[in-house]
Amino acid sequence: MLVPVKWLSEYVDIKDIDVKVLEEKLIMSGSNTETVEETLPNVVNIVVGKILKIDQHPDADKLKVLEVDLGDETVQIVTGATNVVEDAYLPVCKVNSVLADKTKIKKGKLRGVESFGMLCSFQELGFENSVIPKKFIDGVWLLPGEYPLGTPIGEIEDLKDAVIEFEITPNRPDCLSILGMARETAATLDLKVKYPEETIENESGDVNDYISIEIEDADLCPRYTGRVVTDVKIEPSPLWMQLRLMKAGMKPISNIVDITNFVLLEYGQPIHAFDLETIKEKKVIIRSAKKGEKLVTLDDQERELTEEMLVIADPSGPIALAGVMGGAETEVSDKTKSLLIEVANFNKKSIRKTSRDLMLRSEASSRYEKGVSEDLVIAATNRVCHLIEKLGAGKVVGGIVDVYPKKRVIEPITVRSSRVNGLLGLNLTVDAMKEILERLEIQVQLEGDNLVCTPPHQRLDLLKEIDFVEEVARLYGYDVIPSTLFRGNEWGALTNGQNIQKLTRESLVASGLNEITTYSFVSPKSLDLINASEHSILRNAVKLINPLGEEYSIMRTTLLPNLLEVLGRNFKRSVKEASAFEVGNLFFPKQQPIVELPIEKKSLVMGMYGEGKDFFTLKGVVEELFESLGVSGYKYEAETEHATYHPGRCANIVFGDNHILGTLGEVHPLVADNYDIEVPVLTAEIDFNMLMQVTAIDKKYQGVPKYPASTRDLAILVKDEVSNQMVLDIIHDKGGKLLESVEIFDVYKGAQIKAGHKSMAYALIFRAKDRTLVDEEVNKAMDKILKNLEEKLDAELR
């Protein structure tokens, strides 16, 4: 919200307050600012001049030689401006003046003719094209009327000003107006607000003779008012109004349009003016659009309407999109002689949905969709008509058509002073609280130690006791509320799931991985990049109704593309090695009618590339994680069908009865190419929900073994296709209760080994808790193991 300070000062007396001081005080009371910009930035020595004479340049068809009166002197200026006329008043850059972009103007010659200055355009004064009146976009600025010659241009109609840009939060739509910020300023500085004049001196006729209004759905349109203006004169609005609109970010168009925009900015209430003669049967109907109806809006776009959209219609069809944009057929033009001034209130959800569905936003819709008070319409209606009468733009017809089926009732809210002091750590009296709240135009009645508060109609955010506590806090001053220690005997603690996540992060960081966080919104094409099949369950994604773009149009069903994108970005930036992980949610479509919301499933993904990193590096990180979480009873099974991974370097992590806990391996070279990674990439995906179920983070301690262990080495010759896991399964199964541990320590293939075979060597440790083992017990277990290896794997003892 752009607020010109001199406009603001008309409603609250801040003329003697420095802009920076004002900004700081408003920030401390809760009105955050983005910037404070000066109009006419850097401008020096630009004054009002008058063109006395225009001659053609003797050697240039496109140049003119002007004689310009500056009050204290008359100078010759050469210009290429095409819109100059004799007797026009306009801003003139004198010799040694400075423009908004810091350009210095000096005496010069143009095609042999001396020029002592330059005529000035709006752009050269620092205005953006978006707010400059159309007729001055390609020419110099001609002042509408006579002004004292030699006057600094900044003194013309308060052109020199400061504009504060406020960051208005969605819960404070009342601040999307100059009056709204005036109320905040007055409350902050303990001043009074001076409200604009709304009286109409001369009314004639009866509005009911000109128009009738009908609301078909009061839930979507709680209130609709209309006033009629006749004998309309369409012409430019006065300069003071044009400059205020421009400083507030709007382009001046004509007196009627400018007045409606002026009051929109002033009150925060959208207003629309219809050409009354174009409304069929002089009847306005507020209804939902009918299937197949279309409307050409003011931007000359034909829009197809749906039955969910609220429209303003006459008996022949829609004439405007309620609360969003008017229709081209009823637009005010130079030929308009009578007006219907619409000031209404619409359901904010309906306006938001219409605006979103049509991808059409306007100053009106941006306010309606946040909420506008129903009680604002009469004041805004009268203010528009007051300005029309004041500027001689038309004659106001007597009366207002005010259709208000369900009147809004503002219920008082009881605020306990003990609750205010208890939450804020203060010791304010109820009288002090009452004084603070009344500065915000809140009506307060004291009932003992309680305050019965009735909020003003425009404060739609004051709904509960806690809202009033916040108002007391921000106006009392967050900076002066004393710091106190938390009181109470409660403490916080992590849930079991949060503890597991914390331990997971600690383990992976200790293993050298960096944690990353990526967007939950992804592109459908990301699944193509990881070679997901056409029928993969990963493609059953939650689609966003109103995505930011194609690249963020679905919710992720796997974390792998995001991880590979991060690793790929690092590789392209010449990072020689990188290791990363993420714990995040996956999203799957809801299952009607049981589950209404999308199903969320937590997942862990990790990955790495770089010198010395291979499948076993990543496997070691996973095993270190599992050990820190107390996960046991898992095994690895070769996976050759996973399209994302290298078919010979991928394994599933299997837990219990064939439950796949995760997958790890080397990414398929084609997938790596999709992310422009030219070295092997290792990744692992783990079902974190399942991982949390199989962890045993509660430590159980046992004493140091009292009895010695018995060790045996076992070296066998097996076929190449026999995996380590197949051997370990048999050893664990047949080793009995005495087998304490088993580890592989050698795999060998060479000249002494026959073709198609390999040698695998294991170290086995046996121990009994209650006695010292004898060789016969260990030998018996070893014999059983060897026999089963020979029978099931065709193994040979070396």
Offer a few descriptive terms.
single chain; 798 residues; alpha+beta; Phenylalanyl-tRNA Synthetase, Chain B, domain 1; OB fold (Dihydrolipoamide Acetyltransferase, E2P); Phenylalanyl-tRNA Synthetase, Chain B, domain 3; seven-stranded mixed sheet; six-stranded antiparallel sheet; 19 helices; 40 strands
Cα-atom Rg, whole angstroms? 39 Å
CATH fold-level name of the largest domain = Phenylalanyl-tRNA Synthetase, Chain B, domain 3
Quantity of strands, as a count: 40
Helix content: 10-25%
Please write the CATH class name of the largest domain: Alpha Beta
Strand order of the largest sheet: 28-31-32-36-35-34-33
Mean pLDDT: 94
Describe the structure.
It contains 19 helices and 40 strands. The strands form ten sheets. It has a seven-stranded mixed β-sheet with strand order 28-31-32-36-35-34-33, with helices on both faces. Strands 3, 4, 5, 6, 7 and 10 form a six-stranded antiparallel β-sheet that branches. Strands 12, 14, 15, 22, 23 and 24 form a six-stranded mixed β-sheet that branches. 25% of the residues lie in helices and 28% in strands. Helix 4 (239-247) packs across helix 5 (255-267), helix 5 runs antiparallel to helix 8 (377-390) and helix 9 (417-424) packs across helix 11. A hairpin with an 8-residue loop joins strand 38 (739-748) and strand 39. The model has no long low-confidence stretch (mean pLDDT 94). It has 798 residues and is an alpha+beta fold. It folds into six domains: 2-39 and 162-189, 2-Layer Sandwich (Phenylalanyl-tRNA Synthetase, Chain B, domain 1); 44-158, Nucleic acid-binding proteins (OB fold (Dihydrolipoamide Acetyltransferase, E2P), Beta Barrel); 203-403, 3-Layer(bba) Sandwich (Phenylalanyl-tRNA Synthetase, Chain B, domain 3), CATH 3.50.40; 413-480, Phenylalanyl-tRNA Synthetase, Chain B, domain 1 (2-Layer Sandwich); 496-694, BirA Bifunctional Protein, domain 2; 710-797, Ferrodoxin-fold anticodon-binding domain (Alpha-Beta Plaits), CATH 3.30.70.380.
